[in-house]
Amino acid sequence: MTMTRIDGKTVFGIDVGGTTVKCGIFSKEGELLYKDEIPTRTQEKGRFILGDISRHIEELEKKFSIDRGDVLGIGYGVPGPVQEDGVVNGCVNLGWGKVAVAEESRKLNGGIASAAGNDANVAALGEFWKGAGKGSGSMLMITVGTGLGCGVIVNGRVVFGAHGAGGELGHIPLVTGLTEPCNCGKTGCLEQAASATGIIRAAQRKLRQSDAPSTLRSLDHFMARDVVDAARNGDALADEVLNYSCRYLAQGLAVAAGVVDPEMYVIGGGVSKAGDFYLDKIRAAYRELAFYASRDAKIVQAALGNDAGMYGAARLVLDSLEA
Ligand SMILES: [Zn+2]
């Protein structure tokens, strides 16, 4: 981008990840004007992270001649449970215990309005605002990655829940027949079958337990996308693994339908890039499993990719100004 100055009211959308912090500058209408990233310093229990972000925001303000008074707010997405008041209840990837992100941010940035949400929740808010869920009234988003990130939007707002774990679909107990524990310590969580890691594990199990031919056997090491590609190319074993994973994902959506009955489901993450081949499996199983009134809810692919979190973080702080 060759932009040299940014005029008008702006909002910062900050997506804090375990290795990098993505920083976006948005207009108040939600146009992404500039983005970049800085490394996440997780040393010493992550105590430098918010200060680093604050310094970077100052640099960006200088770079684009943004007047402090024109910054409406700073929104954060963080990888852990976040309460509605912006207090993070522990964040393993960042080394954080309990951190009052919104309050700390106001202190570090001269009192600018600040808000924080769980990364999956703000990604859902981003898709709802400017992505695949634009124009819908309610939406549930699932990001299929290493884990299963989920966010629920009802009446245009993120469902935070009483403990910051609202919409935490990845850890609803659904999957039978597993012996290894989930990252959360329980066994049988939805993400153990429906995440990208779950797809890889299920494929490895199947390869061990059967002699069926599969192109996956020729790979020393494979990713979830390789399983999807093999299934698409007619590999029966890979297809069976994918059907297993998609059926559980659909079952999770059907459970969620019974609680919030959203207008649509948005599926994001690397695996979702396989498009309709993958989504059609989820759609078919969902139609079969969901209560009849919720059966026609749309299931679509996410549109904003890795930018969704920045969009949603910006929207979150804008919402907090109206509240
Ligand atoms: Zn779990």
Structure description:
The protein is α/β, with parallel strands linked by helices and 323 residues long. The chain folds into 2 domains: 10-125 and 307-322, Nucleotidyltransferase, domain 5; 135-303, ATPase, nucleotide binding domain (Nucleotidyltransferase, domain 5), CATH 3.30.420. It has helices spanning 43-46, 49-63, 101-108, 119-130, 191-194, 196-209, 224-232, 236-257, 276-289, 308-322; strands spanning 10-16, 20-27, 32-39, 71-78, 87-91, 96-100, 114-118, 139-144, 148-154, 157-158, 264-268, 298-301. The longest helix has 22 residues, at 236-257. Helix 7 (224-232) crosses helix 8 (236-257). A hairpin with a 2-residue loop joins strand 9 (148-154) and strand 10. It is built from 10 helices and 12 strands. The strands form 3 sheets. A 5-stranded mixed beta sheet has the order 3-2-1-4-7, sandwiched between helices. It has a 5-stranded mixed beta sheet with strand order 10-9-8-11-12, sandwiched between helices. A two-stranded antiparallel ribbon has the order 5-6. 36% of the residues lie in helices and 22% in strands. Bound molecules: zinc ion. Zinc ion binds next to loops.
**Multimer state:** single chain
Q: Which residues sit in consecutive blocks of at least 5 with pLDDT less than 50? A: none
Within the largest sheet, what's the order of strands?
Answer: 3-2-1-4-7
Structural class: alpha/beta
CATH classification class of the largest domain = Alpha Beta
Tell me roughly what share of residues is in helical segments. Answer: 25-40%
Tell me the number of strands: 12
Calculate the mean pLDDT score and round it: 95
Q: Which kinds of small molecule does this entry bind, naming each only once? A: zinc ion
Tell me the name of the CATH homologous superfamily of the largest domain: ATPase, nucleotide binding domain
